[in-house]
Task: inverse folding
């Protein structure tokens, strides 16, 4: 099982739709979880941190399910500007290798007019 | 409020030339990282540093060297550039292991 796995997509959704992505991780002792968005040929930008049971920021909701080892990102009322690649990022548990983060390969979202 | 600044933004090199990419952060972060990203691919860690004067190898370190003489700066060097090193290079920093990374806006490097 890969350390961090994401469905690469693409997810093509109409404006106004609700879309959800999942990300699974292999190490049950992983500490912290993040969602980034990356526009084409641009730097990844932090979208949300997911520290405990989840959090919400406007149209975006992130959830963490430690028992099943996945995090999710829900986007409500999709906008054209939401079109991007969404990266799942996991911090390893304390110890050797904990300084490195593990990036998923990303899920591509296209919001269609 | 600069955050993470990378210089240069673009560069074209000939095979065999050398160059240094500079990453500077003004957030007093301990940890700094260099990644490369090839078209349609994910980020791959080249080298990282957990503090001033320290460096460590990442997933793809061959052909690159790094230095962290000052806490705010992390330099990535290519001693003898090869076409396979054509890529977009991103620098990132963070404060503690449980914190997210903050990225610079990248250096686009082409080697002919």
Result:
């Amino acid at each position: 099982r890969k350390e961090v796995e994401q469905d690469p997509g693409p997810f093509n959704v109409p404006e106004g739709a609700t879309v959800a992505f999942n990300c699974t991780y292999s190490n049950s002792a992983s500490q912290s979880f993040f969602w980034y968005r990356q526009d084409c040929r641009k730097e990844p930008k932090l979208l949300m941190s997911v520290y405990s049971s989840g959090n919400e920021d406007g149209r975006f909701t992130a959830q963490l399910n430690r028992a099943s080892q996945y995090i999710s990102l829900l986007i409500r009322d999709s906008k054209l500007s939401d079109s991007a690649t969404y990266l799942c990022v996991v911090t390893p548990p304390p110890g050797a290798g904990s300084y490195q983060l593990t990036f998923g390969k990303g899920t591509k979202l296209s919001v269609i007019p | 409020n600069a955050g993470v600044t990378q210089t240069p933004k673009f560069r074209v090199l000939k095979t065999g030339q050398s160059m240094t990419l500079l990453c500077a952060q003004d957030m007093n972060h301990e940890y700094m990282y260099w990644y490369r990203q090839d078209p349609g691919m994910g980020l791959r860690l080249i080298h990282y540093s957990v503090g001033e004067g320290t460096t460590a190898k990442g997933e793809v370190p061959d052909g690159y060297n790094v230095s962290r003489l000052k806490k705010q700066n992390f330099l990535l060097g290519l001693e003898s550039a090869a076409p396979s090193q054509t890529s977009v290079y991103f620098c990132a920093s963070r404060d503690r292991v449980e914190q997210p990374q903050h990225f610079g806006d990248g250096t686009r490097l082409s080697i002919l």
